[in-house]
Design brief:
Layout lengths: L5 E6 L6 H12 L3 E6 L9 H8 L18 H7 L2 E7 L1 H9 L5 H8 L3 E6 L3 H5 L1 H12 L3 E2 L4 E3 L5 E3 L5 H12 L9 E6 L4 E2 L5 E2 L6 H12 L3 E6 L11 E4 L3 H12 L4 E4 L6 E3 L18 E3 L3 H8 L4 E8 L3 H11 L4 E6 L11 E2 L1 E4 L4 E3 L3 E2 H15 L2
The structure holds cytidine-5'-monophosphate (C5P).
C-alpha cells in the first residue's frame, strides 16, 4: 500500500508512545520507509533502540550527536519525507506547533517540512477537551495539518473519554488514503470554473474582482487525485495547474460562458467556483480612453449567468454552485440553489474571519434541498476534500 513512501514518524512523550513500536512495524509491513524523530521525553516511554531496530534507521532526538558533532538536519528530514506523522502528539507538542515554538528537533522539523503533516493526539480527556487544546488543534487544521480522530475509551489515567491515540492499524489506513487516495471518482468527468473574469474597457483597463482562484484550484486538485477527469475553466489567476488537470484559459464572462457550455456537454458534474462579472462594458474602446472631463460614465450590460444557463439544461448532470454573501447569507444562498437549479451550494460569508478572497483558509456551509452543514474554518485544501466527498455522493 505504502510501497516506496517515506514516512517520518515523530514520537512525543505520551504513554501511547508504546504503540509507536507497532505503528512503525505496520508502516514498514505496508511497504513504507520509516525514519523516527523523538522528543527527549518520548525516550522515557519507549527506547531509541526499539524504534531504531523496528524502523531500520538510527533515530534522532537532539540537533546533533554529542559524541561526534554529527548534525541532524531538520531540513533534510523534512525534504526526505512524503508525510510527517506525529504519533502520539501530546497537548504540549500540539500547543508548540500551533504557536511555532521550535525548542526541539521534532518541532523544528515540523516548521520546515513541506510535506503533509499528520498528528494523532494522545492525552487525558480533560486535557483533550480543554478549550486551549481545541483551539490549538483548530489552528493546526487551519495550517493544513491533518488531525486524526481521538476516539473515546479508557485512558491511561483510568478515566473514560476522548483523547486516546487512534489505533496503529487505523493510522496506517489514514496515511495510505492520504498518500494514495482511492480512485473513487474514476470514470467521472468534472468541470470546475475558477478565478476572476476580466472585462475589457479599452486596451489598457478592465473590470475584475479579488478572486485568486485558490478554492477552485484546490477542488480541481482534490477531484483529480480521486481519479476524476477534470477540466478547469480558468479566469485570471497566478496559480499553477494542478497535476493531471486539463486547463482552459478564458478572460471575459462571455469567454467563460462559451468554454463552460462546451465542456459541460461531456461532464457528469460542474463546480461553479469562478467569480464571474455580472456586468460588462457595452462598448469596448479600440484605443485608450483619454482623460478629459471631470466625470466619466461607463455603460454596462448584464453578462450571462453561466450556472443558471447550465442549470436549465443539466438533465441528470449535477451542479455545485458557490455563494459569497455579505448579508442575509442563508436566505440568499437557498434562493440561488432553487433559482439556478443547483444540487448544492457552498456558502461563504465575507463576515467570517479567514474566509473568502486570497486566504488559504475558508469557512463554508453546504446547503442542499434537504440539509445545511456548517464546516469549521479549515484550509482550502481541506474544504476541497469535503466538497469532493459531497460530489462523490452526488455522482453515486
Ligand atoms: O448570483 P451569484 O453571482 O451570487 O451566484 C454565484 C454562483 O453563480 C457561483 O457558483 C458562480 O460561479 C456562478 N455564476 C456564474 N455566472 C455568472 C455569475 C455567477 O456561473 N455570470
Amino acid at each position: 500500500m505504502l510501497k516506496g513512501k517515506h514516512i517520518l514518524l515523530g514520537i512525543t512523550g505520551s504513554i501511547a508512545a508504546y504503540k509507536a513500536a507497532m505503528l512503525c512495524r505496520l508502516l514498514r509491513v505496508a511497504g513504507a520507509e520509516v525514519k523516527v524523530l523523538m522528543t527527549p521525553t518520548a525516550k522515557e516511554f519507549i527506547t531509541p533502540v526499539t524504534m531504531a531496530t523496528l524502523s531500520k534507521n538510527p533515530i534522532a532526538v537532539e540537533f546533533y550527536n554529542p559524541e561526534n558533532g554529527d548534525w541532524h538536519s531538520h531540513i533534510a528530514m523534512g525534504e526526505w519525507a512524503d508525510c510527517y506523522l506525529i504519533a502520539p502528539a501530546t497537548a504540549n507538542t500540539i500547543a508548540k506547533m500551533a504557536y511555532g515554538i521550535a525548542d526541539n528537533l521534532l518541532l523544528t522539523t515540523y516548521l520546515s517540512a513541506r510535506c503533509q503533516t499528520v498528528v494523532a493526539p494522545a492525552m487525558d480527556c480533560d486535557m483533550f477537551c480543554h478549550v486551549a487544546t481545541q483551539e490549538n488543534l483548530a489552528k493546526l487544521r487551519e495550517c493544513g495539518v491533518v488531525v486524526l480522530e481521538s476516539p473515546e475509551g479508557e485512558l491511561a489515567s483510568g478515566l473514560m473519554g476522548k483523547g486516546r491515540m487512534m489505533e496503529p492499524e487505523q493510522i496506517v489506513e489514514a496515511i495510505d488514503s492520504l498518500l494514495s487516495p482511492k480512485q473513487t471518482l474514476a470514470g467521472k468527468r468534472v468541470m470546475v470554473t475558477a478565478g476572476a473574469t476580466v472585462e475589457a474597457i479599452d486596451p489598457v483597463r478592465y473590470i475584475s474582482n479579488h478572486s485568486t482562484g485558490k478554492m477552485g484550484y484546490a477542488i480541481a486538485d482534490a477531484l483529480a487525485k480521486r481519479g476524476a477527469e477534470v477540466v478547469l475553466v480558468s479566469g485570471k489567476t497566478a496559480l499553477a495547474t494542478p497535476q493531471g488537470v486539463r486547463r482552459v484559459d478564458v478572460l471575459s464572462a462571455e469567454d467563460m460562458y462559451e468554454a463552460s457550455v462546451k465542456e459541460f456537454e461531456s461532464a457528469d458534474c460542474a463546480v461553479m467556483c469562478a467569480a464571474v462579472a455580472d456586468y460588462t462594458p457595452v462598448i469596448v474602446s479600440d484605443s485608450k480612453i483619454k482623460k478629459n472631463d471631470d466625470t466619466f460614465s461607463l455603460e454596462l450590460r448584464k453578462t450571462k449567468d453561466i450556472a443558471r444557463e447550465l442549470g436549465k439544461v443539466k438533465g441528470a448532470r449535477k451542479i455545485v454552485g458557490f455563494a459569497l454573501e455579505t448579508d442575509n447569507e442563508q436566505v440568499n444562498a437557498e434562493k440561488k440553489l432553487a433559482e439556478k437549479n443547483l444540487d448544492m451550494i457552498v456558502l461563504n460569508s465575507l463576515r467570517d474571519e479567514g474566509a473568502g478572497f486570497g486566504h488559504d483558509t475558508n469557512k463554508v456551509t453546504f446547503i442542499d434541498s434537504t440539509s445545511r452543514t456548517e464546516l469549521p474554518l479549515a484550509s482550502k485544501a481541506e474544504v476541497a476534500e469535503r466538497i469532493a466527498d459531497r460530489i462523490e455522493e452526488l455522482l453515486k
